[in-house]
Amino acid sequence: MLKFALAGNPNCGKTTLFNSLTGSTAHVGNWPGVTVDKREGVYKKAASPVAIVDLPGIYSLSPYTPEEVISRNFILDEKPDCVINIVDATNLERNLYLTTQIMEIDVPIVVALNMIDVVKKSGDKIDAKTLEQKIGVPVVEISALKDEGIKELMDRAYEAAQKKRAGTTVLESSALAHVISDVRIALKGKGVENPLFHAIKLTEGDELEVKAHPDEMQMVEEFKKQFADDVFEGDFEAMVADARYKYISANFSTAFVRAKKSEKLTKSDKADRVLTHRIWGIPIFLVILFAIFHFTFGEDLLYLNAIFGFATDVDTGNEVLNAFVAVFYSSAGVSTPGAILFNLMGFICDQIGGGIATGLENVGAAEWAQGLVNDGIWGGLSGVLSFIPQILFLFLLISILEDSGYMARVAFILDRAFRKFGLSGRAFIPMIMGFGCSVPAAINTRTLADEKERIMTNRVIPFFTCGAKAPILAAVCGAIVHIWNPGIDQGLIVFLLYVFGMAMAVITVALMRQTTMRGEVPPFIMELPAYHAPQFRNLMVHLWDKLKHYIKKAFTIIVASAIVIWFLSHMSWEWHYLPDERMNESILHDIGAFVSWICTPMGFGYNTAVMRETGWVFVVAAVTGLIAKENVISTFFVLGNCLGGALNEETMEGWEAVSFLVTETGITWQGLIAFTVFNMLTIPCFAAAATVKGETPKGKFKFTVAFWMITSYLTATAVFVVLSWWWTVFILAAVIALVVAYFILRNKGKINLKFRKRSNAAKE
Ligand code: GDP
Ligand code: MG
Fold first, then answer.
1. Does residue 118 contact residue 92 with C-beta atoms inside 8 Å?
2. 491 and which of 297, 339, 379, 668 could share a cystine (Cβ 3.0–4.6 Å)?
3. Ligand 1 in contact with 16 (CB < 6 A)?
4. What is the model's pLDDT at position 649?
5. What pLDDT, on the 0 to 100 scale, is given for residue 763?
């Protein structure tokens, strides 16, 4: 099978093209650095199938970043039959810089002038024919997004792949042409493949080449002496770069005709004046985030009811009609889109659950079997399923922000605000990706060059609440609002918890920067992509992927865990079946109760008289959450249904399971919040923990686990204590002030505790 590689700068549209060629659903994000590993698919519309490889985005073929190494090695070692060099036509000169380097390799190339739709729209013109003649390889105009020119591109690539191509260089008329040519001949004489490419890289002083070809390096060093008095003072790397750019602007740019533009700022620039404003940038981000949570979790659309107070309970006299009305309108007000989805799904789950229960009763199934299916399997499953549409809606809104280019700005404004505390914008990119799922976010940290930064980022990615934790927040906040009626709505509480998680990430990184992870914050340079309207197909692809992921998990891990939980809660140590009423004699009760005491400071252990009997459900839920965070909710449902089964017949949905557990266990709202905080900050699910382990250096993972455990425990305790007894906030503030003062003084060298002295001594 032929193999084509897609290479190009970050954010030039490689993955979009890859998806459209192979029908895959790889993650496309409107910010640089989303694809960090190569990815393969198959294009089937050519004369014979072609393997397509999506390479990470790079600006150059030097070996300085992991992306560069992956892409360069792939082209050199795996020898694709053709390299499709994707060029962002709106940024022609900068993109062609990479092209001039790929051209030096002996490999067929086709240049894809992508984003031609944008160029045309702006009135600029690119003469692809002229460019093709000048570069000497086929140039095809395409729009990966609009699916234009793809067929022609692939035809030309297929054609090019049939022939061999020898590398060419634009450095022929540069002052270095002579030495390059000498080295090339020497390398060729030794039988080195791609002699031109290696000769040029060696001349640039590329580390890998210098190591591989020390003899030829002598020739370069010799040659350098002649240039000692040159403006570049013998810096060949700079000379090569300069020669490339000069050549590009002198020769290739003529193919580009810029439309006469007035001096006005582009729309993107204008938007950025506001959105990335020095002072308003972060407040605007928080307002946008709040709007997202309001539309997803709020029950009173735009707070209309809070302002005008019109909502009442509706009774149409018809039960079905009432249920229908309740989806869109309740005593809280007009439902938000997220609430509507949630109500609808709850309604559907109710019908299914009712059907299953009636069916089992009619066939006369045994009591334990009814319990297992109704409370265990369906209880756990419906708990998770009922939240899926709402969480997908949240995801849709976040994807819109990402695809529009706004999230790239967020990384930028966060960098500006938190750089002095030791965080960089590059590290914020994987953190923000963590809103979706910690696993791809952790993989993304691969490109963080600084090891300390990589470790810290991996540690705090789970603090950016992922889609699997969102239902915990939704259910807990829903229950709190409906039971205690605190005067603020769920959307706001969920938002505050999300922000709290993000704040904890910033605070803990700042702390690590002061203690175990001292060091320079790496510079952050990122090109801000132009804003564009999010693409419908792209969004749907994201959602579809997420949905598949949820469903797969729901019917495997979550059902399995729910069954285990049900069995352990209905089994005595003597292996007797226990009915719901006797759950307190079960194995699960004893295990849960045994560890409950640890959770007492966090408000969900042995805190009230009632909780001695049933409070263990929270501990159990937190533990099952280590497998998958959805398990927390499904455990609530299984145990809630069983505990409730003794009292009422209906299955529960959404926050009802939590509010039932509240009455049953006597947990306080402070305890519930602390429970949520604990789950947000503690060890993430298996998959995420394993990924973090793989992405961080050996031997550091145990500290990471300790970090998660200690942070979650201390924070949840502080949250519970402060919320329960407000005046303890002064004690907490005093402790924090002491810690901060200690670090400030220590940094000024005024305090020198023993362990620091010792570590200094060790250095000497
Ligand atoms: P990669 O980093 O090179 O893989 O780039 P992506 O495929 O992730 O695309 C980056 C951004 O550019 C996304 O927001 C795409 O929707 C957008 N994009 C890609 N191709 C085109 C195109 O032909 N026209 C326009 N207008 N946008 C595009
Ligand atoms: Mg990509």
1. no
2. 297
3. yes
4. 55
5. 43
Residue 487 falls inside a structural domain: no
Based on the fold, state whether residues 46 and 149 are members of the same structural domain.
yes
Does residue 734 fall inside a structural domain?
yes
pLDDT of res. 448: 85
**Total of domains in the chain:** 3
Q: Among 237, 257, 277, identify where a domain stops.
A: 257
- Closest atom of ligand 1 to 17 CA is 7
State which residues form the domain around 238. Answer: 177-257
**Quick check: is 688 in a domain?**
no
pLDDT of 234 reads 78
Q: For the chain, what's the residue count?
A: 764
The tokens describing 683, both together, are: 């060890």
Q: Are residues 80 and 208 in the same domain?
A: no
Residues 43 and 131 in one domain: yes
- Nearest CA owner, ligand 1 atom 24: 115
- Shortest CA distance to 430 belongs to which of 705, 14, 27? 27
Q: What's the first-to-final CA gap in the chain, in angstroms?
A: 59
Phi, then psi, of 753 in degrees rounded to 5: -75, 165
> Among 21-30, 99-108, 269-278, 375-384, which stretch is predicted with the lowest mean pLDDT?
21-30
Average pLDDT over residues 175-196: 93
Residue located via tokens 């756990």: 380
Mean pLDDT of 710-719: 97
* Residue 59 is assigned to a structural domain of this protein: yes
Cβ of 114 less than 6 Å from ligand 1: yes
At 31, the pLDDT band (50, 70, 90 cuts) reads: confident
Residue whose Cα lies nearest atom 9 of ligand 1: it is 13
Do both 135 and 187 map to the same domain? no
Confidence of residue 641 (pLDDT cuts 50, 70, 90): confident
For 391, phi and psi rounded to 5 degrees?
-70, -35
Amino acid found at 480: I
User: What is the domain-level CATH number for residue 211?
Assistant: 1.10.287
